[in-house]
């Protein structure tokens, strides 16, 4: 029997941009690919993004000469410029590493508190204690939004 390790976390990030612009960085394939990437040792084998309720996202990358790393997401609720609710799973080769439920909200500065972008997540890892996210994907708690912030600054 497989065991599961559940965790929850909230991440606050202030991005340099209005909510509509930040929303586009997460919801449009061309914009998201600028920051939602792995390191230079990986090549993209497949990418698609359909950010709408019932839509999905696939990011399959491959270590040169190595295994596939797969991110699969399903979008449950999308309110343009305000909120994205989705679930995703991470896989390496044939192994599922994690599954998460995520809500991202986009708010102008001064509403609720000074941060623009919120991510709340419910995260499950198999087996417990394993590292279930890749920090360069922006999915790990310490990295979330850093690549998006960099991409937004570069597009100014």
Supply database-style keywords.
seven-stranded antiparallel sheet, 15% helix, 156 residues, globular
Order of helices and strands: EHHEEEEEEH
Q: Summarize the amount of helix as a percent range.
A: 10-25%
Low-pLDDT residue spans: 114-118, 125-144
- Termini, distance in Å? 51 Å
Structural class: mainly beta
Descriptive overview:
It contains 3 helices and 7 strands, in the order E-H-H-E-E-E-E-E-E-H. The protein is mainly beta. It has a 7-stranded antiparallel beta sheet. Mean pLDDT is 76; it is low at 114-118 and 125-144.
In short:
This protein has 156 residues and is mainly beta. The protein has helices spanning 19-27, 29-33, 146-154, and strands spanning 5-13, 42-49, 56-63, 68-79, 83-92, 95-106, 117-125. The protein starts with a strand and ends with a helix.
Strand and helix layout:
Layout: E1 5-13, H1 19-27, H2 29-33, E2 42-49, E3 56-63, E4 68-79, E5 83-92, E6 95-106, E7 117-125, H3 146-154
Antiparallel strand pairs: 1-7, 2-3, 3-4, 4-5, 5-6, 6-7
């Amino acid at each position: 029997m497989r065991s599961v390790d559940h965790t929850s976390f909230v991440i606050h990030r202030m991005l340099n941009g209005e909510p509509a612009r930040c929303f586009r960085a997460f919801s449009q394939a061309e914009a998201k690919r600028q920051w939602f990437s792995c390191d230079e040792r990986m090549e993209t084998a497949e990418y698609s993004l359909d950010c709408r309720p019932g839509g999905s996202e696939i990011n399959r990358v491959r270590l040169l000469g190595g295994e596939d790393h797969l991110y699969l997401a399903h979008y449950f609720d999308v309110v343009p410029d305000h909120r994205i609710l989705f679930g995703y799973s991470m896989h390496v080769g044939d192994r599922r590493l994690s599954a998460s439920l995520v809500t991202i909200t986009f708010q102008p500065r001064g509403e609720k508190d000074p941060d623009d972008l919120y991510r709340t997540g419910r995260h499950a890892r198999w087996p417990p204690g394993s590292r279930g996210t890749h920090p360069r994907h922006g999915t790990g708690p310490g990295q979330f939004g850093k690549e998006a912030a960099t991409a937004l600054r570069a597009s100014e």
